[in-house]
Amino acid sequence: MISDSLSTGEVRSVFVQTSSDGGLSAEQIADLCCRKLVHVSNDAPPEIRDQAIVFKVRVENLILGYIKEAMRQSEIVAFMLLLLVVTMISRIS
């Protein structure tokens, strides 16, 4: 808990992702999400750590696939709305 960390003086790790060309890429968002979902301990036995790393990569790729699909769907909806507006304007003119 945060209150436990504050009372013991423990400093929790923080990860910050920045972007200089607009928003974060799909890959960056997938990485951020995966960092929250899966943690691979450096202290784990090598066999378990290796399996956890493979699992983390698979989870990140799965998340990335869904993010990219959501982005494609969003682009399709935006295009359809633009087409609808252009059609309505052309009927008014």
* Residues in helices, as a percent range: over 70%
- Would you identify the regions where 5 or more consecutive residues have pLDDT less than 50? none
Mean pLDDT: 88
Counting helices, strands and paired strands, the structural category is: mainly alpha
General form: elongated
Order of helices and strands: HHH
Proportion of residues in β-strands: under 5%
What is the radius of gyration? 21 Å
Tally the helices. Answer: 3
Question: Biggest β-sheet, characterized?
Answer: none
Q: Cα distance, first to last residue?
A: 62 Å
The count of β-strands is 0
Number of domains: 1
Tell me about this structure.
With 93 residues, the protein is mainly α. It has one domain (2-92). The chain contains three helices and no strands. α2 (26-37) packs across α3 (46-92). The longest helix is centred in the C-terminal third of the chain and has 47 residues, at 46-92. The protein starts with a helix and ends with a helix. The mean pLDDT is 88.
Key features of this structure:
93 residues
Quick structural summary:
By secondary structure, the protein is mostly helical. Helix content is 71%, strand content 0%.
What is the secondary structure topology, with strand pairs?
Elements: H1 2-8, H2 26-37, H3 46-92
Helix pairs in contact: 2-3
